[in-house]
# Entry
Amino acid sequence: MAEGGGDVGFSFEEKKGDLFDCPETDALAHCVSEDLRMGKGIAVLFKKKFGGVGELMSQGKKTGEVAVLKKQKRFVYYLITKVKATGKPTYDTLRASLKELKVHCVKNKVHRLAMPKIGCGLDRLEWEEVSTMICEIFSDIDIHITVYRVL
# Structure
């Protein structure tokens, strides 16, 4: 899946480690609900580390869209994949959010993106399907995506 050569093109890697130890120039992405409760899972860590819930709420984003914070040198993306924190996303809502994320990355010249196994923890989507979807959506742009898994 990864392109050889320099930094041009699409590449995708999975690695063990803490997502928050990635380079501070990497943009970050994770999934949340429209209500932006962020009360469980890795979302709690995003809320503690970056705050900005009021700013995110004021963006008024709906399921299938992306809310964005700019923190220091990077963007932090909140993929809205479900209406309520108690709900579950679908592959379609995740796909719509990922497409919005891609548009923002291209427009803002984001070339490095780090994320957890989005949609696959508490949200119970299948990683094999999600990772294929990520590669399909981003394969035609110049971006390196690193997925961190805790082990």
